[in-house]
Amino acid sequence: MSVKIRLQRHGKKGKPFYWVVAADARSKRDGKFLEKIGTYNPNTNPATIDLNIEKAAQWLHNGAQPTDTARAILSYTGALLKHHLDGGVRKGALTQEQADAKLATWLDEKAGKVDAKKSGLSKAEADAKAKAFKAEQEANAKRIAAQAEAAKVEEVAEEAAAEVTEEVVEAAAEETPAVEENNEETQA
Question: Pick from 3, 76, 1, 69: which is nearest to 35 by CA?
């Protein structure tokens, strides 16, 4: 029986969530598996990977072959490095303490890189929010200025209309006595 370390899909449509499992190569993708090694969530940025490095290294020692994506995940988490260092310990090239020290150093560097990426993403997100807020403030200022300008124009138009109305009323008042005089003349 050949064993594969592969991803088993879970989650919902459009939001995949994977289990990293050791399974018989003949079993279905989401079917029976031998052991769950970890999880992988590609929906977060950076992707969340929770992997038991000891179990993964043990399956690699037993001859399990990872799929391409599983190999990338194992490499990212350091399981392949642990497998490689354990091979060096078995051959006598280095001691277990040296191998553990190398693995710990590598894991610390990797954690630093991941933290730097997370902080860079959060900083970029904060910058984007600040830029959007500033643009919104400018748009609001322009809108308020345009409303004030429109109010001034409307006020001037109302004043002009009031003046025209007064002139019309005065002109009508002047014409009305003339019309009455004409009416009196025609009656006499």
Answer: 3
**pLDDT (mean) for 132-161:** 86
Q: Is 158 helix (H, G, I), strand (E, B) or coil?
A: helix
Question: Distance between CA atoms of 157 and 165, rounded to whole angstroms?
Answer: 12
Q: Please give the helix or strand (H or E) that residue 149 lies within, else none.
A: helix 96-187
What is the DSSP code (8-state) at residue 64? Answer: -
Give per-residue pLDDT as tens, 52-72: 999 999 999 999 999 999 999
What's the Rg (C-alpha) of the chain?
40
Contacts of 9 (CB under 8 A, 6+ apart): 16, 17, 18, 29, 30
Q: Is the pLDDT of residue 171 over 90?
A: no
Residue corresponding to tokens 């560097």: 109
Q: What are phi and psi of 145, to 5 degrees?
A: -65, -40
Phi, psi for 22 (deg, rounded to 5) = -100, 120
Degrees, nearest 5: CA angle 168-174-176: 100
Instruction: Give the integer Cα–Cα distance in Å for 135 and 128.
Output: 11
